[in-house]
Amino acid sequence: MAIILPFVLTSCSKDKDEPQSLEQQLIGKWVSTWTQDGDNYIKTAIFSEDHQLFLTGYKNDTQNVRESHTWSLDGNTLKLIRNYDSKEETHSISIKDDVLTLSGWREIYHREKE
Description:
The protein is of the alpha+beta class and about 110 residues long. The chain contains two helices and eight strands. The chain has a single domain (about 20-110), classed as Lipocalin. The chain has helices at about 5-15, 20-25; strands at about 30-35, 40-45, 50-60, 60-75, 75-80, 90-95, 100, 110. Strand 1 and strand 2 (about 40-45) form a beta hairpin. The chain is globular and about 45 Å long.
């Protein structure tokens, strides 16, 4: 037993230390909030494991955005296909310290902790 235990502990600790892929980091709920011209905005982006993106946005507690997309990653390029009209767009993506930025989006998103 004493001979096997160090190998098991070493094996487990390596799993925790392995960096997550960009795709693994992206999956989850991201929130952006800001104030502009006296109005309060909140935008939420939920990236699911089945490659769906759900966007909701509010201005002063009134919903003004509700969209769903299919997403894919190629390196650090995020491709979005809007579900209701198949419009495609691509963005460079960066995630650092639980902060998500996408080229072409003015919002900066922070990972929402569960």
